[in-house]
Every structure is written in structure tokens, then in C-alpha cells.
Design goal:
The protein is 45% helix and 17% strand. It starts with a helix and ends with a helix. The chain has 314 residues and is an alpha/beta fold. Strands 1, 2, 3, 4, 5, 6, 7, 8 and 9 form a 9-stranded mixed sheet that branches. The protein has 2 domains: 2-206, Spore Coat Polysaccharide Biosynthesis Protein SpsA, Chain A, CATH 3.90.550.10; 220-312, no CATH class. The chain has 13 helices and 9 strands. The chain has helices at residues 2-10, 29-37, 57-67, 81-91, 110-120, 143-152, 167-170, 187-192, 226-246, 251-272, 278-290, 292-296, 303-312, and strands at residues 16-22, 44-51, 71-76, 96-101, 105-106, 125-130, 138-141, 163-166, 197-206. Helix 10 crosses helix 13 (303-312). The radius of gyration is 20 Å and the shape is globular.
């Protein structure tokens, strides 16, 4: 009955809404736009949100929109990534939603691959690989299984690009408009509502890493500051509590992922002598000391994490 209802509702409806936020990427944005327009799958709208750019990024998007009616450009005052993406979501009309970032690029069959994966498996979410995570394997997962797999970050990560979502799954959810992080607070809530998640790890997306990325500190830890660390610790705690309440059977591993992040940050702050984070490091060490035995014997902790616990948490 539910499948029949979805089929009726989708008749005549645009298949995919592609949402891309751009901000001061005039050197890279043409590549991103062209990559979407050259897709083998053609039934989509392309919503480009110019998030208050002071360079020609918005003008470049307008140039392409004048040539291709599938593009709609939203110009808005500067806001964080979440507010920009929300503007795109509020404008989206497609049956499915896909995100790309303006400094990344996609394979020509990116949309077709994800669309076929989600529809052929009657899933609510489909996930492909990226060039930094390539696995020629396919899995159909429950929401709980997909979230646990995502939090391991071995096959796929917490970022919205590389994924396609049934619009109904995300229509009542929105990104945070007050913080620096963009994906980690929302992605698990979206996946939690899925009936099935279809994953095939062939690389159809390329993340371009550079120090202007919002998450550049995750690869260059010397860019970490105390405000960012405090925000991430807060959202990890909220995530643990929210997921543990919804999926009781996986509460232990959700708590492990939070403490895994903590010991990783303790190690990075110590190794790079990030002085402004020393106070926060002390608080993390205190909490880790209280759960030391549980962490060391939980069955999930990796050998190097146990070594860090031995070194830093006494």
C-alpha cells in the first residue's frame, strides 16, 4: 500500500533536486556546475544557493541559469552553511534530494547511480563511494545498521554529499543555523527515519580538500580552536543521547563513538600543543577517566585508542 501511494504521488513530479551552496568559489564553481549539467540522468532541478558571495560565484551561477532552465539560483545574505542549505531545501520540489559542494566534483553518472540504487532497492537513502573511500561492495541496511556503519567512517562518512534521500525523509528536518558544523548534527536524524539504506561503494564523488573547507581542522588539527571543539563536543553528546534513546540496543557503541572522539582530541591537542584547548582537554580527560574501564573493555576500542588512554588518562 505504501509503495502504491508513493508511486501515485510521484507521477509527474520532478525526480531529483540537486542542492549546492556556493560562497566565494569563483575559481572552482564552474567545474561543479558543469559536472551536474553533464549528468547522464537528466530529470532534475539544480538549486544553487549563492550564500552572500563577494566574488563572481553568484554571477557565474546566473550565467549558467540563463542557458539551462533546470538551474534556479537563490541569492541571499551571508549565513552559515546550514542556513544556506535550508534555503535550498525549502525551494526543492524533487522526489529525491542530493547535495554537492561547490568545490567538489562528481562523475557523469553520479545521479543515475544513486537514483537506480535507491529505486531498485526500494530504499529511502542511497550512498555511493568517494575517491577517498572506494569499496566495490553493496549492502542493504536498516537505519540502525547504516548509522553504526557511518559512525565508523570506514566505508562512508557523515557528510551529505555522496547520498540521495527520499524527499519525504528530510522535508521536516533542517540544518543548524547557529553553528560551524553542518552535517554531523543532522545526518543521523535523517538516516534514523529510513526504512532501508542502499549502499554501493563505487566512487562517484570526489571531495577536494583545502584549508578553506569548513571542516579543514579535521585534517589539519592545528586549525582547531576552542569554540569549534566545544561545539563538536556538544553535538556529539546530543547525538549519543538521541541515538541511544531511539536505538537502545546500540547505546554502548554510540557512547563509544563519542569517547573515541574525545580521546582523539586529547591526543591531537597534546601532540600539537594547542594551548587554547588545554582547559577543554582537562575536562575530557576527567570524563574519560570516569569511564576508563568501560571504554577499555567495551570491545570496540581500537589498539591505538587504548594506547592513548594509557598515555593521557591516568
Amino acid at each position: 500500500m505504501e509503495q502504491r501511494k508513493r508511486a501515485v504521488e510521484s507521477v509527474g513530479r520532478l525526480k531529483i533536486s540537486v542542492i549546492m551552496l556556493t560562497y566565494n568559489r569563483e575559481v572552482l564553481v564552474r567545474r561543479a556546475i558543469k559536472g551536474v549539467l553533464d549528468q547522464t540522468f537528466k530529470d532534475f532541478e539544480y538549486i544553487i544557493v549563492d550564500n552572500g558571495s563577494t566574488d563572481r560565484s553568484g554571477a557565474i551561477a546566473d550565467e549558467y541559469a540563463a542557458k539551462d532552465s533546470r538551474i534556479r539560483v537563490i541569492h541571499r545574505e551571508r549565513g552559515n552553511i546550514g542556513s544556506g542549505r535550508n534555503a535550498g531545501l525549502e525551494s526543492a520540489t524533487g522526489e529525491y534530494i542530493a547535495f554537492i559542494d561547490d568545490d567538489d566534483f562528481v562523475e557523469p553518472d553520479f545521479l543515475e547511480f544513486l537514483y537506480n540504487l535507491i529505486t531498485e532497492n526500494e530504499a529511502d537513502v542511497s550512498i555511493c563511494g568517494a575517491t577517498d573511500k572506494i569499496f566495490d561492495e553493496k549492502r542493504i541496511m536498516t537505519a540502525e545498521e547504516a548509522i553504526v556503519e557511518m559512525l565508523w567512517r570506514k566505508r562512508f562518512n557523515v557528510q551529505f554529499p555522496t547520498k540521495m534521500f527520499r524527499h519525504e525523509l528530510i522535508k521536516n528536518l533542517r540544518f543548524s543555523e547557529d553553528n560551524k558544523y553542518d552535517d554531523i548534527e543532522l545526518i543521523y536524524k535523517v538516516l534514523a527515519g529510513a526504512g532501508h539504506v542502499a549502499y554501493h561503494g563505487l566512487a562517484k564523488y570526489t571531495f577536494v580538500r583545502h584549508e578553506a573547507n569548513n571542516s579543514a581542522w579535521t585534517t589539519n588539527h592545528q586549525l582547531l580552536d576552542k569554540e569549534t571543539l566545544a561545539e563538536y563536543l556538544w553535538v556529539y553528546r546530543e547525538r549519543t543521547e538521541w541515538l541511544s534513546a531511539k536505538f537502545h540496543g546500540s547505546a554502548a557503541i554510540f557512547r563509544y563513538f563519542e569517547h573515541s572522539f574525545m580521546i582523539s582530541m586529547v591526543e591531537k591537542i597534546s601532540r600539537y600543543s594547542i594551548a587554547e584547548c588545554f582547559d577543554r582537554r582537562s575536562l575530557m580527560i576527567k570524563e574519560l577517566a570516569e569511564c576508563r574501564d568501560t571504554f577499555m573493555n567495551c570491545g570496540y576500542a581500537l589498539d591505538f585508542e587504548k594506547e592513548w588512554m594509557e598515555q593521557y588518562v591516568r
